[in-house]
Design goal:
The protein is an all-alpha fold. It is about 65% helix and about 0% strand. The chain has helices at about 10-20, 40-45, 50-70, 70-85, 90-115, 120-130, 145-155, 155-170, 170-185, 200-215, 225-235, 235-240.
Length: about 250
Amino acid sequence: MTTARRFPLFLAAMAPAMLLSSGLAQAQPSFDCSDARSATERAICANPGLADLELRMAGVYEELARTVGETEARRIADIQLERREQCGSDTACIERQLLTSIGIFRAESRAAATPPAAGSDEAQVLSDLRAALGREAATAQQAPSAEADEDEGSHAEERAEGIAEGFARLPDYRRRNVQGRLRDAGLLTGPVDGVWGAGSKAAVEALLGEARERGRNFPVHRPAGADALYRFIDSDVFYYEFLPEAAR
């Protein structure tokens, strides 16, 4: 059995994994660590933080399976597992991929429960995520709209306020993940501490400029646009487009 096929079985493995952890302080992932076969699985089992994050991802996957059905959920999840396995024992890479999986699973669950309106920020980000999964053609390479031009020219203060407030709405682990990805993309030179500051502001504004050049516009002066931007940073599209090979 290949490693990629083991991912859909983690729900069945969750109960024994939790039994193994009874009475122990160390977190256990959703799979049985006594059966860990790959370098990635062994790294997760050896790191309580990664084990806890992997278990959290398994819970989000369970919700995805209830929402879209087991077959579709497995199809989405298997691709994420393959990318996670490519990390080997690199714990930073594993953490990024687990966070990406959580973001993708949640986005798909939300879209299935309440389909986003055509042309909305949420629909565009979901389209980008699906394109990264090879599930539909990329639709992001579009000419900036007239609204985008107006936003660029006359909403600098609102834009700065929007990205700061959007960052503040994120939970701590996502704030640090956003900063880590911006750093890996060569956009952030400050600390990865979950705190908004001049370095984070400059990095996000640099990203907005680069994204605009590539045909993506995020109307961050509105809450929905800022939220879409930070979901984009979490996505595989950002990972493969903005991170150099050496940082993956």
